Amino acid sequence: MSEDLIIPEKQWYALQVRGGSERPVYRQFQFFLRESALRQSAPAACFQDIADCRLLYYERMRRFKGAWHKELRPLLPGYLFILAGDPAVALTDLRKLSRKSRLLKSGDEITPISPAEMDFLESLLDNEDVVAMSEGYILGGRTVVEKGPLKGREIVIRHIDRHKRIALAEIEFLGEKREIRLGLEIIRKESIET
Hints:
Elements: E1 11-17, H1 22-38, E2 52-54, E3 57-64, E4 67-74, E5 79-84, H2 87-94, E6 101-103, E7 105-106, E8 109-110, H3 115-124, E9 130-131, E10 134-139, E11 142-147, E12 157-161, E13 166-173, E14 176-190
Parallel strand pairs: 3-9, 10-14
Antiparallel strand pairs: 1-5, 1-6, 2-5, 3-4, 7-8, 10-11, 12-13, 13-14
């Protein structure tokens, strides 16, 4: 009698790494994923369960050498996102990394990122996993975003630093409210005439 194998559906999990080491860990993931796809290396250099890894960025403006330049910064510092089916097998895969990392848990259980949270994050991102700069104006103390990923989502903006061209936005991430930085250029400020 043959039993049907149940293959778990792959879900996104948050992987916590030491702040500032996101890029090196991401590059190491890309190496292992490439090797896993090619299957040319020994199994020790391949992932068994992890199918993808993403490092999310936001675009911001920074002034140096007398001019404004675009730069990319991690959207959620200290976090990568991995696509895996079985968290236990994914933990075994993570032991192949040379840097410390851990899957986030809720209590004793490794919990995936909810589809609603991932859908919201993906709605902000472009094809290269970057939240592009938004552009807007202030009308009578109210922010109006004209273009960019924050258009129509002004409600998540908690604070704007016009000098640094940054908006602090509040999002739901892993069941908690978190503040993230996003690029927002305010091109004008108008008052409402009575």
